[in-house]
Amino acid sequence: MAHKIPLPAWAQDPSIFDLSRAPHRNVGDKERLGQPRRSEIRGHRLRLENEDVMMIAGTRVTTPARTWLDLCSIRRLTLDDLIAAGEYLVSEHERTFRPKTAILRLTDLRSYIESRHRVVGLGRGRIALDLLAVGVDSPQESYLRQMLERAGLPKFVPNCPVTDPWGGTVWIDLGNVEFRTGVEYEGEHHLAEEQIALDAWRDARTRASRWNQVKITKYDMARGEPYVVKLVLDALRDHGYRG
Cα–Cα distance between 225 and 218 in angstroms, integer? Predict the structure, then answer.
């Protein structure tokens, strides 16, 4: 996919290309321009406006906004998948050592979706759009955030800044300021020697700031949503949450 939008494993096949043509205008067009059919091509018929298309390396492709809207028409993609894809596009933050610029600002995506009419997937797109958060750094963080939202836990802010006792800033993957609780998703890169040292320094500063910390791995996620939610709920309750 030209925009590198994260999708579930079953939807990622670099050998398959999605190729679209305009809808038939009349019978003659239908006879001359059949839907693209080759083993490595999935053919589509899409009515695209000029603002739906951009050029990448000399090739016409749909814009990030239109691509995300088209993903919303794929029923096999869950709402969680669509939110993770959308949060990848709109993610931006000002972490001192790793600032990030959005591929597509949330306000621009919202304006685009509001301007569309009679497009397949638009209804799901509007629902997913209202659930997007800005600042999520990975698909797994997005899925984790959605678990906590569904459970009705207090709101967790992506890339939450915490001021440590020395006046520095610790950035937490998902943080709740009211109950001083942070959640970190520990991907496989956290096993690297240098990252282990950085994480240990981050953890020490988090504890010194009197924040509770929950670390979640892929193994925790595999145990299911109730298990993950309970880990975070216990940490919140340690800091006064009574919900």
Answer: 12
Q: Residue 62 and residue 2: Cα distance in Å, rounded?
A: 9
Comparing C-alpha atoms, which of 185, 240, 242, 243 is closest to residue 212? Answer: 240
The pLDDT assigned to 29 comes to 46
Kindly tell me the sign of the dihedral angle through the C-alpha atoms of 208, 214, 218, 220: positive
Q: Which domains does the chain have, with CATH numbers?
A: 9-129 (no CATH), 139-238 (3.40.960)
Cα(6)–Cα(224) distance, rounded to whole angstroms? 21
Rounded to whole angstroms, the Cα distance separating 82 from 154 reads 23
pTM: 0.84
E-assigned strand segments in the chain: 17-21, 41-45, 53-56, 59-62, 157-163, 169-176, 181-185, 212-216
Q: What is the pLDDT of residues 32-80, one digit of tens each?
A: 445 555 554 555 566 788 888 989 888 888 899 999 999 999 999 999 9
DSSP-derived secondary structure letter, 111: H
Q: Report d(CA 136, CA 57) in Å as an integer.
A: 28
Q: Which of 148-152, 201-205, 230-234 bottoms out in mean pLDDT, i.e. has the lowest?
A: 201-205
**Distance from C-alpha of 147 to C-alpha of 152, rounded to nearest angstrom:** 9
Task: Provide the mean pLDDT of the chain.
Answer: 87
Query: Which are the contacts of 16, defined by CB distance < 8 A and separation ≥ 6?
Result: 40, 41, 42
For Cα atoms 140, 171, 104, give the angle at the middle one, nearest 5 degrees: 60
Spacing of C-alpha 217 from chain mean position: 17
Q: CA-CA distance, 83 to 63, in Å (whole number)?
A: 17
Lowest-confidence segment of 87-96, 151-160, 165-174 by average pLDDT: 87-96
